[in-house]
Amino acid sequence: MAIIVAVDAGHGGKDPGAVGPSGTYEKNVTLAVSRQLAALINRQPGMRAVMTRTGDYFVDLNERSEIARKHKAHLLISIHADSVANRQARGASVWILSAKRVDREMNKLLGQQDKHTELLGGAGKVIAEAEPNPYLAQTILDLSWDNSRSEGYSIGEIILKHIGQEVRLHKHQPQHASLAVLKAPDIPSLLIETGFISNPQEEKLLISSAFQQRIARALFTGIKRYYTDNPPGGTMLANRAQGQSQGQIKHVVKSGESLSRLAKRYGVSMARLRNHNSLNSDELRIGQVIYIPTS
Ligand SMILES: [Zn+2]
Prior knowledge:
- By secondary structure, the chain is of the alpha/beta class.
- The chain has helices spanning about 25-45, 60-70, 100-110, 115-130, 135-165, 200-205, 210-230, 235-245, 260-265, 270-275; strands at about 5-10, 45-50, 75-80, 95, 175, 190-195, 250, 290-295.
- β1 (about 5-10), α1 (about 25-45) and β2 form a beta-alpha-beta unit.
């Protein structure tokens, strides 16, 4: 199985995005960078890109994360260019969804029972089949969202490190904002502002294919670095990592998995798992890494 990255070129069609001082449309810059990024991902064995738009047409913000989910993306990365009144502002930045927006979206989702199964996979099915229990749904949604956001933040930090070596940064840490394209509770989602299209010098950079290639490569290197260090279970990179690690298998806990189930699945006693991972409790959380001793 490949690591799937949804690459989202911001704006498009009737929505040009920001317009630079010399008339550059953000939607064209985002598509060019996204194409470069997708090409790099697709050239990497074990990774595959899915683009939410491949041409100059309009895609609704909700539809963008739906496309990512349909293709079972591990990550959604939305490409944009910044714009402010102050023409001096410059540099790239990375954004994740704010906690405030999470609360708002959570309340919306809790009201839409039909969405639970789709968003929560097996756990959603358990909820749907159990007695109606809004607290259970909320707890699981909470866990899933926490997990996606903290993973998104970690990927954002690594990406910043890599793009910071290539281009100027506006902010050195991932920033939080209420951005609709990032609101998938089940997919780590990041928005990248590649530079300020409102700054005349950066506008020139943003339309040059050399700069587009440079930022796409830095994004790709950051993403690849993250997944090489943290391969999701069942993917090719994970299998490779397993082969390299000595005497143990790395397992990332998915919804519905318990310590006893892992023990059964890998043929190891629960006591050994507890011991090997220094666990104080048998309670596992989604996304937790458990090492399975194999020798
Ligand atoms: Zn934008």
